[in-house]
Task: structure prediction
Amino acid sequence: MTDNIAGSGEPLVDIVGVHKSYGEVAVLKGIDLTVAPGEVVCVIGPSGSGKSTLLRCVNELETVDRGAIFVDGSPVGSSIVAGRLRRLRPRQVAKQRRDIGMVFQRFNLFPHMTILENVAEAPVRVRREPLAEVRERARALLDRVGLAHLEQRFPAQLSGGQQQRVAIARALAMRPKLMLFDEPTSALDPELVGEVLDTMKELVATGMTMIVVTHEMDFAREMADRVVFMDGGVVVEQGTPEQVLERPQRERTRKFLTAVLSATP
Result:
């Protein structure tokens, strides 16, 4: 990548002209988006609109074709050399990724480890932090998500909602600057959704910067500082929850919200 782009360094996340294609299929078509420190941005839109791909690009799980993404002033997956972006080596990318926590639709816990070991694994292996110190922090995080009493259980012994709360604690164990949530409740039975959303609401209250891809309109309405509606690989509309969810300006946004709300029991 050789785009001549300089980040402003002011927002925590600065997405500049991002394009991403898979073969002939263009998934992201010039995304521009900023996220301020402490801001909660909910990204909504139909399946296939590019929401999850955008999150994966922010965490460098996917490499953008054009444009750039800056987190805390540094280009993701690249360095700036003579005013131009140059790709980092995989080990450097992994080091950069430490500051970004991500929670996926599927929990991706290690099945052979207890939930305490799952939460403590990355700080010990990746950051080389002392095991005793990390386990103390892991226990505090499990307590925070209401699972301290289950620290010796294995993932298969937990409900889906409990596993997702462990996944959130695991991401927080790395003390990230930014948390990304990719439809964290979509794989859960309806009765388990609330416990995960409650955990996320508590995280919002701490001032964590969050980008949340979600179909949970009530969560977006209540917790988001800004709602971004994507469709067809572009940002169609964005604004406060009241502006986007109650008084959308674009016909495509109105049609999407009508369909979503009519499908809600």
